Structure formats: C-alpha cells, structure tokens
Amino acid sequence: MKKKINRRDFLKVMGVVGMTASLAACGDSGSSSAAASSTAGGDDGVITISYWTTDRHDQAYLTPLIEEYNKTNPDNIYIDYQVYADNYSQMLDLAFSTDTAPDVFKLSGTDPLEVQVDEKKMLLDLSPYMTEEYKARFWDGAFVQGINSWGDGIYSLPFTASACRLFYNQDLLDRVGISAPPKTLKELVDDATLVTKQLSSEGIYGIAGNYKSAMSAVMRSIDPVVQVSGGTCYGFDFKNGKYDFSSYREVLQLFREMYSTGVAFPGSESLDIDPLRTQFAAGNIAFYFSLSHAEPGVYQSQFPTDINWNCCQIPSLSGNTDGVQNLWFGGSDKAVNASTKHPDEAWKVMEFLHSDEVMGPYYTAGLGTVMIKSAVEGAEPPASIETMPDLAIGSNDQNWPIRPAISIEGEDYSTVAVQCIFGLKDIDQAISELNDRYNNAYDKSIADGAKRIVYPNFTAKNQDTSV
Q: Could you tell me where the beta strands, DSSP code E, fall in 95-190?
C-alpha cells in the first residue's frame, strides 16, 4: 500500500522551497484566524480532504508542495490546507462537537490518547493501512503505547522530534581555558564557576536558565540530566509503579550550587527563553539548556549572532549515558478523523505528508528533526547538523512510556524544583513532600479504577515494558 508520489512534479518546486523555508523560533506570533494555504475547490469528482494544523513554521515550505499536489490531483484528491494560530484546541473541540471536524488534523495535545480514542471517538485506527514495510520506514521504537498507539491500534504517525542539549559559547570557553564542554554535571558547575569568576566584571556569566516558566525550564534542564543519569522520568518509577523523586536530589544540589551562589546570570529566576537567547547571542552567557530543533533557526533569523556557539549532549552525574532522554513531542503529530467520510483518501493525504519526497527535503532544509528513517537516510543532512552533530536525535533520545494521569494537590514538581534551586526550600524535605503528594494522588487514581503501571524489568536505559 505504499504511496507513489509524482517525484518529478515535486522536485520542480524543491529549489525554491529549499531556499526560502526557514525554521521559526518557539513562540512565534500569528493571527488568531486560520490562514488558508491552498485555495478551496477542485475539479468535479475530486474529493476534498481538509487538513488543519498549527505549524506556521512549516507553511512556507509546505504550501507550494500542496499546491502542486492539488494541481496534479494524483489520487483524485484536493487538500484544503488550513493553518491556525490561537485557540486551536478550542476550535478543534468545537468542530468535533458540531460534526465539522477536519479529515486530517494535528493533535491538540489537550487529552490523553486513550481519551481521544475510547471516550471521544475522535481518531481513526491507521493500522489497517500500514504494512510492515511501511512501519519499517520509521525509527526503531517509534510506536509507543499511549503516545501514538493504543491497544492494537495506531492513531498517529511519528513526524518530528526534539531533544534537550547543552548549548555553549566556544569563544568564552577558549578565553578561560576550557578545552572541551562538560560531560558531567559537576564539570558544568566548575566550568560555569570559572567563567563567572574570570569574566563577570564584563557582565559575562557561566550559565543561565529560563526559570520564569518553571515547567519549561525544568523540562529542558533538570529532567534530562536526571534521565540520562539513570533516574526517573518526571518523577515516575516504572519499575516499582510509584513516584520517587529521590534521583533528583544530587542534580538539584548541583544546580543550586550554580544558581544560589552568584555563578548564574543575574535574574535567571525571572528570565524567559527569548530574553535569555538575546543575552547568549550578545556573548554574555557561556552555557544554557534548550531544544535541539529550535536554536539553529533562532540564531539564524531571530537573534543573529557572530559568536562561535555549539552544543553537546546533556551532562550526566557519572559522565556516562545511564539512561535515555525523553523526546519532546516525539512520536505523535497528525491523525485522521474517525468520522471522516473518506478514510481511504484521508490516509493517502497522510502518506503524502509523511512521504520521503516531502520529509527528506524538509529535513535537509533544517525545518525539523524527522522521525522517518527512510526520509532521513535518503536526504542530505541540514547544514546545522553537519556543523553541530550533537543536534541530531540519536539512540539515547527516545520516547519513554506514557506516565499515569493524576491530579495532585498543591505545587507541581517543577515549581518545587525551582524553589530548591534558588534556595527557597530544603531539597530533602521537598523531595519527601513531593513523593507523598504524588503517590497520594496516584493511589487515589488507582482507587478510582486506574490500573497501576509496573514494568518489573524496566531501567532508564533499557526501557523494557514487558510485564
């Protein structure tokens, strides 16, 4: 059932697309109304398949490809491509409640997969359309229960992903005599301290974080360090089926050493990510944690800079990779409406959007880290990955299993973690209280009918979910 794309027609527009498409930074602005990327309509007898997304940064790249597809109608299909900005989740919910939902759409991420499948009946099972050959196009471990698979069904295809990395200013490292980026968290503390000690008189500091948003900051710094050090994923211990934040203890202590002793850029507790990037681009910050997919475009178009910057893998406590890092938005993106009147045609649109002919040049243009192995293997790597190889997603970047859905009382773990980092809470007491509150919430969900998640052979490295 593998789709044959008219390669000649698409290659005609590749030259223009490759030159004009660029990666947008996180938090780009846009109108709250939909922006139609293709004109409505089509020849008599042509089936229109509506496709909704929020990916404005893909619009310049994808529009000419969809227009070419609509001109040729290779499958007797016309794609009505709509790009939305604000309030997408509410618009999608309203569309489903009024039977006006699109045929193909980007998942909003507001509900767990099982809710969208079992309760709301929103998603079509794609597995009947997928041969083993088609599934083999994606990276190993691409299909994960609770992320894009549920039961025996597959409800979304892997598309792009991102992982956290440590970004650094090589010019500053050279100035203070640091020969290589740190492999352990203690080395990062020492390096950041050295930079601040030698250069703070010039307004230059060793590290900064975007701690204005606790969840955003912790998920791109504390959490990945815990994960690659062999700890839990956002506090959940899959082996024993409970929450346990004890693996955060040493990581929080070392972060506290940087952020409570004057090593970090002043005001990090109230910094957002873009003001942080502005200071990094100006040469005032040596290290910070962020996402592999975003930073190349940021410093190319949003905050152009002449500094010599690079990235490296997340440092661990031991210096070894003792666990895999959980991907950001890896594995799930687009789905098909379970109530579509044209499921076969909607699947053909999914095939087109995930085809090597579309996703290979997308990867080469640096628009995203593509989760489709066949597209990546047949394409030239983007310039950013050629110059900074650690931007690439590797075998130590994977989807962790889905965690329990619970409702806790009081502050979440990321808020508490930030308070610990800035010396506002005792770390041991905070971890004890988090364990109590999160496990109480989990026990309540079990009492209400949820099934306890226990994988007895699971480790942060092997990700064995057998029971």
A: 104-106, 149-150, 153-154, 160-161, 164-169
Other residues' Cβ atoms within 10 Å of the Cβ of residue 440: 13
Taking all residues of the chain, what is their mean pLDDT, rounded to a whole number? 89
Residue type, 99: D
Residues in the chain: 467
Residue with tokens 């045609």: 345
* Span 15-58, pLDDT tens digits: 434 433 333 333 333 333 344 444 444 456 899 999 999 888 78
- Rounded to whole angstroms, how far apart are CA atoms 338 and 103? 8
The predicted model gives 382-389 an average pLDDT of 92
Which neighbouring-strand residues pair with 339?
A: none
Count of CA atoms in the C-beta half-sphere (13 A) of 295: 31
User: pTM for the full model?
Assistant: 0.81
Residue 47: which of 346, 282, 309 has the closest Cα? 346
For range 158-166, the mean pLDDT: 92
Looking at the DSSP assignment, which residues form a beta bridge with residue 52? 82, 105
> Which contiguous run of DSSP H or E holds residue 325?
strand 325-326
- For residues 174 and 321, the answer to whether their CB atoms sit within 8 Å is no
> Which residue in the block uniquely carries the two structure tokens 């089926």?
241
Per DSSP bridges, beta strands 309-312 and 104-106 are unpaired
Closest CA to 289 of 193, 222, 385: 222
- Rounded CA-CA distance 432/243 in Å is 11
Dist. CA 300–CA 22, nearest whole Å: 9
Q: Which residues of 222-235 are buried (b: 16+ CB within 10 A; e: fewer)?
A: bbbbbbbbbbbbbb
Q: Give just the sign of the alpha carbon dihedral 233, 150, 348, 336.
A: negative
Report which residue type is found at 226: V
pLDDT (tens digit per residue) in 278-332 = 999 999 999 999 999 889 888 988 899 999 999 999 999 999 999 999 998 777 7
Q: What does the alpha-carbon distance between residue 156 and residue 334 come to, in Å, rounded to a whole number? A: 6
pLDDT at 43: 55
